[in-house]
Amino acid sequence: MSWRDGIMEAFRRARVLLREILYPEGALCLNCGRISDGNTLCPDCRRDLREGDLLESWETGEVGGVPFWSMRPHRGIPRTLILRLKHGAESRAAAELAAILQTRPAYFPALSPDTVVTWVPGPKGRILERGVDHGKLLAEAMARELGRPCRPLLTRRGNDRPQARLKESQRRQNLKNAFLPAGRISFPVLLVDDVLTTGTTASRCIDALRKGGATDIMVLTATKATSSKS
Ligand SMILES: [Zn+2]
User: Fold this and answer.
1) What's the topology of domain 54-224?
2) CA of 115 to the centre of ligand 1 (A)
């Protein structure tokens, strides 16, 4: 986050705090801050998020040798919701992102009944700082929408630095051997993450899941970015 973004974020938080004092929880739209109808997003933002341009919004391809699906490009309302989730640990943002799953295309693969949803564990320092692993919040919300269980299948070693602050070469080095399987994996896995950027993080997690025995892995991210930062 640049200093400009930091100042904007501080202003936003102050504004949100003031509004939260004036209005009860859920009364304001998480995206535009206008008075909502008791939902996380106001009707306008909800319509923009759910409908949008559906043909353009979902993207599929391959990362680390397995299929990935991304629900939206990393801009606009989905990006705002991810920032709320990441920096404010707002579980309402996770639920709203997961609700986009309702717009999944007909060719989205049917998950077998024994599929387990899991997430990319965040750096320990960040979890301590924020009190919650935002990746877990998102995976749990996605799992609820998909009617599948959500379990921790990966552990993260050491106190590696958050990826967003590093250059590409540093990111790769930082993540080398960062993830380990949490146990034996003998079922299909759906790995959920917020943003797919270079795919470095997802690939390292896929390697670890394979080490644990997983042979059937798919990645689902809320958004897909084209920049070099996530
Ligand atoms: Zn709104």
Assistant:
1) Rossmann fold (3.40.50)
2) 34
